Amino acid sequence: MAESTDMRLRLPLLCIILEVILIILFGLLVEYNDETDAKLWNENRTHSATRNDHENEFYYRYPSFQDVHVMIFVGFGFLMTFLQRYGFSSVGFNFLIAAFSLQWATLMQGFFHGMHHGKIHVGVTSMINADFCTGSVLISFGAVLGKTSPVQLLVMAIFEVTLFAVNEFILLSILGANDAGGSMTIHTFGAYFGLVVTRVLYRPNLDKSKHRNSSVYHSDLFAMIGTIYLWMFWPSFNSAITNYGDPQHRTAMNTYYSLAACTLATFAFSALVNPEGKLDMVHIQNAALAGGVAVGTAGEMMLTAFGSMIVGFLAGTISVLGYKYLTPVLESKLKIQDTCGIHNLHGMPGVLGAIVGAVTAALATPDVYGQGLQRVFADVETGQWNPQSKGGFQAISLAVTLGMALFGGLITGLILKLPIYGAPPDAQCFEDGVYWEVPGEEEDQHELYEVATPNEVEKLSS
Amino acid sequence: MAESTDMRLRLPLLCIILEVILIILFGLLVEYNDETDAKLWNENRTHSATRNDHENEFYYRYPSFQDVHVMIFVGFGFLMTFLQRYGFSSVGFNFLIAAFSLQWATLMQGFFHGMHHGKIHVGVTSMINADFCTGSVLISFGAVLGKTSPVQLLVMAIFEVTLFAVNEFILLSILGANDAGGSMTIHTFGAYFGLVVTRVLYRPNLDKSKHRNSSVYHSDLFAMIGTIYLWMFWPSFNSAITNYGDPQHRTAMNTYYSLAACTLATFAFSALVNPEGKLDMVHIQNAALAGGVAVGTAGEMMLTAFGSMIVGFLAGTISVLGYKYLTPVLESKLKIQDTCGIHNLHGMPGVLGAIVGAVTAALATPDVYGQGLQRVFADVETGQWNPQSKGGFQAISLAVTLGMALFGGLITGLILKLPIYGAPPDAQCFEDGVYWEVPGEEEDQHELYEVATPNEVEKLSS
Amino acid sequence: MAESTDMRLRLPLLCIILEVILIILFGLLVEYNDETDAKLWNENRTHSATRNDHENEFYYRYPSFQDVHVMIFVGFGFLMTFLQRYGFSSVGFNFLIAAFSLQWATLMQGFFHGMHHGKIHVGVTSMINADFCTGSVLISFGAVLGKTSPVQLLVMAIFEVTLFAVNEFILLSILGANDAGGSMTIHTFGAYFGLVVTRVLYRPNLDKSKHRNSSVYHSDLFAMIGTIYLWMFWPSFNSAITNYGDPQHRTAMNTYYSLAACTLATFAFSALVNPEGKLDMVHIQNAALAGGVAVGTAGEMMLTAFGSMIVGFLAGTISVLGYKYLTPVLESKLKIQDTCGIHNLHGMPGVLGAIVGAVTAALATPDVYGQGLQRVFADVETGQWNPQSKGGFQAISLAVTLGMALFGGLITGLILKLPIYGAPPDAQCFEDGVYWEVPGEEEDQHELYEVATPNEVEKLSS
């Protein structure tokens, strides 16, 4: 007998327990930082002749934060509404797990690299970082979309956020890697984590829900809202936590050019791989974004507009080809059911981004960067820096990330396989009605009335 | 006989007369302020060694303004598109009354607290304040949604904006209250004003339009666009006009945490109150925002992330319970037909926000705020400040707001009851076709053609 | 025999060739500017006592850039989704030609007014300018919407961007005109260019696709997303590249008031011109934006809120009247098939904006502008400035723009008339299915199953 999908006790219990734990931990551990605390900020301000309220980091980080925030909630949320009967869940569960993850991420990231005298200090930068970590969870959500209960998703978020923070700590604090836009920490990690989870949760009889695992006309338009917002704000995403000044400015611009070139590649290859030369919405919705992923590491470096465009073009190309040729093979041979094709949007472009980052770092010279060298590669200051070893550490970072993602995804997938979360049965996947009160369609009622009312049908048949 | 709903003369006449009056009053009364006037700005700039163009308040307020602007036009507008046949009116009338209200609010607010030598000075701060006042009108719109003509809505806006400005003046200038995010001035005022208006306009036979007073699948997705934008930008809303530096930074962050906790509470209680444990889109669309309302007063204070999360969790809880248990009672017992449930999203959370603000103010100490105390509680400077009396004034402010809202709503409701505005008949509520040219549905035509053309029907029946 | 619309070779070939050319030219010609180059920025920074990272132009231009970016990709893209079966193409082709145009514009604009020692220097300002130029192409797209292949659109973009850059160079660098918000360079140019192109591509048998050349209920709501974003962010558009300080602040505010007044005029005249007093979505979606176009030149001047509101009111009025009375005449008499009515939204309001700009410039006095005079009218510094001649140059600029647009549109139209681009046949216009894989409608399947399955039909008829 199929497991009940009733969420009446499971979901409220989990949400309330998690939020209570979060509140208690925030009460014990979290404090305003120097820029948000009334006492600290005003002490610092009056002690410094040049420091005034306009220099609060709020004014230099908050616009980027809001762009990232839009990507997390509108971008990811609506991108996944492409399924015909899963719009409520796409936007709604995205909303739920993002709201949870950003709180949990604040604690986990703070624990690993934000502790000051036993307290976690928060401000706009921790808000951006928490949103970044959340992005990683939402990437994984894309792989299991339509096949999991909200309880499962929350449990996945608990583990994934934790491992994200560990991996990020190893990369940034131990290996001294550069990864401002998260090609490795966010995209590669989130993608391979999610792919392993969906592999473990493999459903041999998923074709029972096949008729709902596709889009309709309007759902594709809703998804384009997500796509376009992700595309527009990706320059803000990649530059949100770089150093101030030229690095932030340059990162945004490199991302802008990479995405523009990626879009042309996407349209080109989408038409090319179709027998009738018709464009496929799946490609436009997803592959056009791969250019942002692929400059997530090198974006802050002196990649040049020229280099960014090459990377973007390449990313769009492999992403479309992945959707067309690789995804079906992954499903049939490796039993990886990847609903949104995150391997093509985040997986391969993320690895490409890591490699581009390693190469660009290995080619860095004081001649090109001038005094800006140490501001991009922080470890220059330690005196131990040389480009080749830096490139090597970047490559090691990619390997660590892949290892963490595969291992973490495996453990998490096994935990999620327990039959206690109310996952939908095979014939009820990709269906909002399992977890939501779904209203009728106006059109149906309308037609029943206008086209064929019961009376008319009766009359006709008599 | 039913009153005609023809808008051909009434709406153009009212719009043109109002706009001509606005233009004349702006011509007589409104001037650029020091930051927007070419002469004044450049005089000040050259007289001051440290003041340069980068310090124009534009750069520190305008990004917040744009976020607020998105909330007013996209947030409120799309949130109300949940009704199946009222999308044009929801976005369209929202657009119309917001465009009017922001002009009228500039005059009214300027008249009460922006006069300089007989002139109203305008700049980005007055733009934010005008948008805030507009928000209050749009809240009230939510209560009467579907049951009023655009002429009625404009008349309501004339009165509500005026009374809003009076109430705001009493609270901020006379009582010296803190209310940066408008828990009292915007949400409590707008909600109870609207509830009294809809009470006065009570329609005993509204069930004639019952079949249209609900959502369809796609309309719920459109509404989620509104919800998510409101949710994301609420930190900007609450912080838009606080003092620069730590207060603005802190307000945004407190709101962010309050909303995150509120979202978990909303999902928890939405599933809990449903017999099958299914989530209800009405709750997700609305109650998840209550956390922003509830920290509208205390957000700029040292509420801490911990405190914000408790308030947010509480707000989400009472909001869902309100939708489930209180709204039906308000309608059946008190004859308050509250289309959007503004009592649950703005009313109760607004009152909660006012109380939290009063308590937090009463607990303020120099030990916690340091030299920041006078920057949060401006009246510290006057030397008459003590926390308890401050808390008392906050509480009095809530009472004044409630009084103004109830009284103003009553008068306005009675004026709107006159049968001269072309309100829709009971059987035509929640219907765009009354005031809009509505195109056919592609699907209908399509089906008439594909599923059952007249010929086919004939053939079948013969 | 009709030309094949198969894009399988044409579109990929063109996209790939264009992108390869772009990449090569970027590699040869484009360099980071002083604010984005690691070496240059840090050299400048350390040589200057007062210049710190917070003064990088990124922080003062990038928020405006992102607002403009949203207008280009979401605003224009969704505004055109009003057609019932052309949503994929509206958003998708908008996306494609914008991604191409912004790269090509960077080169063309850089070539004409951004060369430094043989290199084009790029930064956030060049990004805004490239987006502006792109906007012009998208305006022209509105005229030919539904009647052109993506290959045709890309070819149009190649020519239009080039001519835009020439015209912009003549106006800004030779004639010294003011046009910060592009009433002339963007709107007038884009509109008349597009109108001539659609005139040359006149289709006498377009009524074969008449049934698709209209909206459906949901498509009108999608279009309102575009409208509202354009409306909200227009203040950012007009102010994005003005001088810092008071001009930028003033421009945003003037635009805000112009748009508000325009919206009331639009609602008034939309109801007035309808026999039953019903509002028309076409007017609300488009004419309400004319106020932004019409202050594109004068917005940075001391137009005052009063003046802005008069201009906005006028713009909304002529725009609605244009949709109602002029568009049908243009089509029947002049054979101009203007799908989106760009003549009403961009053409007439653009010319109005140019005239308002000329008059406002001619009325400028040192008494009103003080030391701000030379910051608004840069040529004051040359000593040759007087208001009347300035006004004259503004008027000449309008004439030049119209000439360039008409001539450029004619040439481009003739090139686009060649039967090699795979344009849709007359009976297949306004139809996504020509160039896109279009999914079925859920509703159809649903109904076929629920309302009248083949079996039921058979049973009924037997």
Notes on the structure:
The structure is a homotrimer. The first copy, chain A, has about 450 residues and is mostly helical. Chain A has 18 helices and three strands. In chain A, helix 5 packs parallel to helix 7. The interface between A and C is large, with 82 and 82 residues.
Question: What's the SSE blueprint?
Answer:
Three copies of one chain form a homotrimer.
Chain A: H1 10-29, E1 30-32, H2 38-47, H3 58-79, H4 87-113, E2 115-116, E3 119-122, H5 124-144, H6 150-174, H7 183-200, H8 217-239, H9 246-272, H10 281-286, H11 290-294, H12 304-334, H13 342-362, H14 366-369, H15 373-376, H16 387-416, H17 442-450, H18 454-461
Parallel strand pairs in A: 1-3
Antiparallel strand pairs in A: 2-3
Helix pairs in contact in A: 1-4, 3-4, 3-5, 3-8, 4-5, 4-6, 5-6, 5-7, 6-7, 6-16, 7-13, 7-16, 8-9, 9-12, 12-13, 13-16
Q: Largest chain-chain contact?
A: A-C, 82 and 82 residues
Number of helices of chain A: 18
Q: Let me know the largest β-sheet of chain A.
A: 3 strands, mixed
Name the quaternary structure: homotrimer
Side-by-side strand order of the widest sheet of chain A:
1-3-2
The beta-strand count of chain A equals: 3
**Average predicted confidence as pLDDT of chain A:** 93
Strand content of chain A: under 5%
Ends apart, CA distance between termini of chain A: 43 Å
**Structural classification of chain A:** mainly alpha
Molecular shape of chain A = globular
Radius of gyration of chain A: 23 Å
Helix-strand string of chain A: HEHHHEEHHHHHHHHHHHHHH
